[in-house]
Design a protein that fits this description.
heterodimer; A: 784 residues; alpha+beta; Serine Threonine Protein Phosphatase 5, Tetratricopeptide repeat; five-stranded mixed β-sheet; four-stranded mixed β-sheet; 24 helices; 63% helix; B: 125 residues; alpha/beta; Rossmann fold; 20% strand
């Protein structure tokens, strides 16, 4: 995902004490990649760490480039690197690049070079690419290259980034169409696809092609929804809102920002991605409110942004939030407060925010009547956007957008100054750019995309609404029925009352009783109805299982019918005179008969196994804890799981090891529930080893081991497999409901989440230890 | 007439070969089998006009029968092969969706082979 905020210390503020000299650096690039800007770090008497940043270079003949800096006299140390303060470039031997020491006493020209080894970051990847034959690994390398070219300011090159991203996408499509669905379903795969498409989207956005960017991000949204990775969903929504910012459709900016925020409300704030994603969601909402002139709401969100904790570069984010606050106060006309915040914003800011602050200050000074200062700041912002287009692009933004924003201000200021020529020039520039950015074609494309997406969303909502309405209607109907029944009974009582006044007392007594029983019956009915509602949802789950049974039963019926036909044919053949009998045909028929019988038997057993498994599983849990021998229970389900799988897949086999601690005795648990947990862990384990077996074949022997142990007041049950292990990026999600890595139809994704709930309800804990390529162990801890 | 049968249950092959034993012997019909939607698409890609009629199960792991139906009707425009859908779930939603995607017929499991044979023969003419 794109991160706009890439903090590089910047800006100089210094008071001239010594004489100033022009220092011209001539940089020879001995590298494969040529740069427009270079990162300069240094220590000298007019230079502090905020001056360490990217400086634009101007081209000279002979592949040389130059930077000219105004520096005070005195000693200086400096170096050029292509890293930033975040990733300091290292030499081949791992040592840092040394500083060069020079004394400045007059206007000076220094010759420097960027050495070839600095290409390593990219060159390594190229070599890797050439040597890597495995498509999935090639995709990873191509993605890295595309990321470097798209998002690293020093390497930014839209063509190269697009080339690598598209090559990776093509490769991925190739895999998708040739290999079977497992790769497609694999988690990393979809995330990879999303990040590749985000690279292309960001590039498209940075090139001003907002509709294409939006289209790709909508595709990403669909993928993320399918994937159910809600962090990625939130991030995609934020990118989408950014496309709408560029098209100035703030209503949609707001709705996508809020959507992202509402997703984040259900996510774990301890997740490392949380603070930044939250920040971006608030930023979208703030931006929308600000531009819709709802300044108090904007203020509310900007203040919330300023207090988000645990951001990756806290000072930088704080500076950005201050910049937004300043903009709001400026818009409210509280110029003093605004200037105060702008001053705070400029500390620890990167170039992107400094340009924004310059633009903001220009507007404030204009209002205050300091037109000269206003023009100075406005021009400074404009110059940044005009010269540092690639820097802006590497943040996924388009310079023209900002230029179009600021040039009307510059024009106005020139006009006020009486410089009508310049005023016209900048006004014209703004018109031309706006026309290219927001021409009717683009607006139409944007509207079409927006419309398609909103109708897709409506369909999704409609579906869930219908389901809910259905349920509500039913509940309402039952309520209605019970009211009517109650009223009828009441009318009946009144009638009887009138008729038999004399026996009133006795009757009333009886009737009271009657009402009470009716009421309790009604209550019973109601509970039953709730229960049947539950059963209905259970029914949906079992539909899949019913299908599993229907299939083998169909085979049993079909093959037995075929056999009937075969026997008739055989009999007909046998009735023929001996000379006409076709021995070969008879043999064939008999052989088919035998094979069909085997098939009938096989499918019969298959249905049998499924039914048995279902009964085991749906045996209603009484929810009552009873003293249970955990060793016996664990062993019983261990074998059940094994035979269940063997029944389904004859080729499946695995070694089973058990190690029981006999000192455990009986512990208080709900046996059906814990049994379900264990069954689930066994099934997962067997699945993991069988998946690995499929890939590795003979050289690998599947093993599932079960261990129980008592330690203090706890018992632990460990189910350990030697399968493929769980990838690191997935481990955090396995206990979430509906999360599954199995292909559709093979897992509901509810097993582990139910297990988690059951173990929690027992006051215990369930943990997972896994190592990719070595296996997984699930450890259940229960209090005795 | 070549018929492509798509079903993830491998025994379907044996079943069809025996149920249509006479037709196959008499060269009236020829059957090819694919055990997944992906495999079916692969077959169609290498044998573009290889199958006049496709019988596909709906509920399959990976690419579903409906997905396959959609792809076939999208990719093979003229003339698209006839596609009959077979499913154990005879519900309206499956039916409506199959029809919307351009299915030529819709059968429910267990398949009535007598009726199927008649239908296939009718389409032969």
């Amino acid at each position: 995902m794109k991160t706009i905020i890439c903090f590089i210390f910047a800006a100089f503020y210094f008071v001239p004490l010594h004489a100033q000299y022009k220092v011209t650096f001539i940089v020879k690039e001995k590298t494969a990649i040529h740069h427009d800007s270079i990162y300069v770090t240094g220590t000298f008497n007019n230079w502090d760490s905020t001056s360490n940043r990217n400086y634009l270079m101007h081209s000279l003949p002979n592949n040389e480039k130059t930077i000219v800096l105004d520096l005070k006299e005195g000693p200086m140390k400096y170096k050029f690197t292509r890293g930033t303060w975040l990733n300091v470039e290292k030499k081949e031997d791992g040592s840092e690049v040394a500083d060069r020491a020079v004394a400045i006493m007059r206007d000076t020209t220094l010759i420097d070079s960027i050495e070839r080894w600095r290409d390593e970051m990219l060159i390594d990847k190229w070599y890797a690419l050439v040597n890597e034959k495995e498509d999935t690994s090639r995709i990873k390398i191509l993605t890295d290259l595309a990321t470097a070219y798209a998002f690293q300011t020093e390497y930014f090159n839209a063509d190269s980034a697009l080339f690598y991203a598209q090559t990776a996408l093509q490769l991925q499509q190739k895999i998708m169409s040739s290999a079977h669905q497992k790769i497609e379903m694999h988690l990393g795969y979809i995330n990879q696809l999303i990040s590749l498409q985000e690279i292309v989207a960001s590039l498209m956005h940075s090139l001003g092609n907002y509709p294409k960017a939006l289209e790709l991000r909508f595709e990403n949204l669909k993928l993320a929804e399918k994937e159910r990775d809600r962090f990625i969903m939130a991030q995609v929504l934020e990118s989408i809102s950014n496309d709408y910012v560029s098209m100035k459709d703030y209503r949609h900016v707001l709705s996508y920002g809020k959507l992202s925020d509402s997703i984040l409300q259900n996510l774990n704030p301890a997740d490392p991605r949380f603070p930044e994603t939250k920040w971006n969601a608030y930023a979208a909402i703030e931006n929308a409110f600000f531009n819709m002139q709802e300044l108090d709401s904007a203020l509310y969100y900007a203040n919330k942004m300023a207090v988000i904790k645990s951001l990756p570069f806290p000072l930088g984010y704080l500076a950005s939030a201050n910049g937004l606050l300043a903009d709001i106060y400026a818009e409210k006309g509280e110029n003093k407060t605004a200037i105060g915040y702008y001053k705070l914003a400029i500390l620890n800011s990167n170039d992107y925010w400094i340009a924004k602050v310059d633009a903001g200050l220009a507007r404030v000074f204009q209002k205050e009547g300091h037109l000269d200062s206003a023009l100075l700041y406005a021009k400074s912002a404009l110059t940044f956007y005009q010269t540092q287009t690639k820097t802006v692009q590497s943040w996924g933004e388009n310079s023209n957008y900002f230029i179009a924003e600021i040039s009307p201000l510059v024009a106005e200021l020139y006009k006020a100054n009486g410089q009508l020529d310049s005023a016209y020039k900048y006004l014209h520039l703004s018109v031309v750019l706006k026309d290219s950015l927001y021409n009717t074609d683009k607006v139409r494309q944007f509207q079409t995309l927006t419309f398609n997406e909103s109708s897709r969303r409506q369909q999704l909502e409609q579906q869930s609404k219908e389901a809910k309405q259905d349920y509500d209607n039913r509940v309402r109907m039952y309520g209605f029925i019970s009211i009517i029944t109650g009223m009828l009974i009441f009318a009946f009582i009144l009638y009887r009352n009138n008729k038999q006044k004399q026996k009133a007392n006795i009757l009333l007594q009886a009737q009271k009783q009657e009402i009470e029983t009716t009421l309790s019956e009604l209550k019973n009915t109601q509970t039953q109805l709730v229960q049947s509602e539950k059963m209905a949802s259970l029914g949906e789950l079992t539909a899949g299982i019913a299908h599993e049974i229907q299939n083998p039963l169909n085979f049993v019926n079909n093959f037995s019918e075929v056999n009937k036909d075969l026997i008739e044919e055989l009999n007909a053949e046998r009735l023929k005179p001996n000379t006409e009998r076709d021995e070969q045909l008879e043999k064939e028929l008999l052989n088919d008969l035998k094979e069909n019988e085997e098939k009938i038997n096989f499918h019969g057993k298959r249905a049998d196994a499924i039914v048995k498994g279902m009964l085991q599983h749906s045996r209603a849990s009484k929810g009552i804890k009873e003293p249970t021998n955990i060793n016996v229970l664990a062993d019983e389900y261990f074998r059940l799981a094994y035979h269940g799988l063997r029944a389904k897949d004859k080729t499946f086999n695995a070694e089973m090891k058990t190690d029981f601690d006999d000192s455990i005795g009986k512990i208080n648990i709900v046996p059906q529930d814990i049994g379900r947990v264990l069954l689930n862990l066994y099934n997962n384990g067997f699945y993991a080893v069988s998946e690995r077996k499929k890939v590795e074949g003979e050289g690998y022997s599947p093993l599932l081991s079960l261990q129980t142990m008592k330690s203090g007041n706890n018992i632990t049950i460990t189910v350990k497999d030697n399968g493929n292990g769980i990838p690191q990026n997935v481990v955090g999600k396995i206990f979430q409901p509906f999360f599954t890595t199995k292909p559709t139809g093979q897992g509901t994704g509810l097993g582990l989440s139910l297990s988690y709930d059951i173990v929690k309800a027992h006051g215990g804990e369930i943990k997972v230890e896994t190592k990719e390529g070595e296996g997984t162990a699930f450890i259940i801890q229960l209090p005795v | 007439m070549k018929i492509l049968v798509v079903d993830d249950e491998e025994d379907v092959q044996a079943l069809f070969l025996q149920k249509f034993r006479k037709e196959i012997k008499g060269y009236e019909m020829e059957f090819v089998f694919a055990f997944s939607g992906e495999e079916a698409l692969q077959y169609l890609q290498t044998n573009e006009h290889g199958a006049v009629l496709i019988l596909s199960d709906i509920n399959m792991p990976g690419m579903s029968g409906l997905e396959l139906l959609r792809l076939i009707k999208e990719r093979y425009e003229k003339p698209p092969p006839r596609v009959m859908m077979i499913t154990a779930y005879g519900d309206d939603e499956n039916y409506n969706q199959a029809m919307k995607l351009g299915a030529d017929d819709f059968l429910t499991k267990p398949v009535d082979f007598v009726a199927l044979k008649e239908k296939l023969k009718a389409k032969l003419v």
